[in-house]
Write a structure and sequence with these properties.
about 325 residues, mainly alpha, binds zinc ion, two-stranded antiparallel sheet, single chain, 14 helices, about 0% strand
């Protein structure tokens, strides 16, 4: 099991009938630290920085290219797979594509898909409250990585059974990953990329540290969507939400940074409004899969629906943050 896997009990009993008070925003809470996660991430950040040093000194040029390709492959598992396909059901995928995306997700080493999807659905259901696993009301650090260094808030534990996970538990690909996570995730995330890199002729030290660097890039891309995308930016679609968007975030997250749009239309497979797709490589990937017939039933919010929402609840900016003159 990945060191940062938290409690992950399968919850088939959906307690929809249970009435609960609104979760607190950021009530008093005594953290319980998870020491192995703190040590793990501390090591990864240090080793990742050493990987940056090696990129400019001992690493061969093609090793940096190789690391970048592995990094982008990992983003497909997170954004196209865990996020848009399984958390939001924004499109459907045929079995071979599901298996490919599940393996890409293993590469990113972000706990099991079962846990990822459950936490993400909680995030959308209870955004920026104590029932949101990476509650941004607790500050940038907590929503970025701090939430992985401590045990879940009691509100998260209390409400995770309210999330409908029946589709996830009925999916053999996701359940296979969960059953075999102990060996599958370390093998795909560390064993395979380091092994191939080494066979291609790079030194073991460079292979190892560049892969840790790649892992930290994949991780921080996701972390930024939980922290930066819930702290600073404009809100063209719904000004009542904390979720926001800004251009640097779009670049940093490889196209998944239009977060105000995403929280307004979480089921849209593009994760961003039309016009952004030039820098939204995951949307391009899903489009390609749809063209080949591997992905289908792609859900899209129509331009009329988007414009109406902007008019009704937006902050008066356009998708690039410029003031809207007219609708
Ligand atoms: Zn969010
Ligand atoms: Zn989402």
């Amino acid at each position: 099991m990945p060191p940062f896997e938290k409690s992950d009990v399968l919850t088939t009993d959906i307690k929809e009938h249970v009435s609960m008070d609104e979760p607190t925003k950021a009530g008093p809470w005594k953290h319980e630290y998870i020491v192995q996660n703190i040590v793990f991430f501390l090591y990864c950040y240090i080793a990742g920085v050493y990987g940056v040093y090696q990129c400019f000194t001992t690493a061969k040029w093609w090793s940096v290219v190789y690391m970048f390709v592995v990094f982008v492959t990992g983003t497909l598992g997170i954004i196209a797979g865990a996020h848009r396909l399984w958390s939001h059901k924004a499109y459907k995928a045929k079995k071979p594509l599901e298996i490919f995306l599940m393996l890409c997700h293993c590469l990113a080493y972000q706990r099991t898909l079962v846990t990822w999807v459950r936490d993400h659905r909680l995030h959308h259901k209870y955004s920026d409250t104590d029932a949101d696993p990476h509650n941004s009301s607790r500050g940038f650090f907590f929503s970025h990585i701090g939430w992985l260094l401590v045990k879940n808030h009691p509100e998260v534990e209390k409400r995770k059974g309210l999330v409908d996970m029946s589709d996830v538990y009925a999916n053999p690909v996701l359940m296979y990953q969960k059953r075999n996570a102990k060996w599958l995730l370390p093998l795909i995330s560390f064993g395979v990329p380091v092994g191939i890199h080494y066979i291609l002729g790079e030194s073991f030290s460079v292979c190892w540290h560049l892969n840790i660097l790649r892992y930290m890039l994949d991780s921080n891309l996701t972390f930024l969507t939980n922290s930066l995308a819930h702290s600073w930016g404009h809100r063209p679609y719904d000004k009542t939400m904390v979720a926001c968007q800004n251009f640097p975030l779009l670049l940093a997250t490889m196209g998944d940074g239009f977060h105000n749009f995403h929280h307004a239309f979480p089921w849209d497979y593009r994760g961003a409004e039309l016009g952004n797709n030039c820098i939204n490589h995951v949307t391009k990937f899903i489009d390609f899969c749809a063209y080949k017939g591997w992905a289908y039933d792609l859900k899209v919010a129509s331009e009329g629906v988007i414009r109406n929402r902007m008019k009704r609840t937006g902050d008066g900016t356009d998708l690039w943050g410029k003031k809207l003159v007219e609708f």
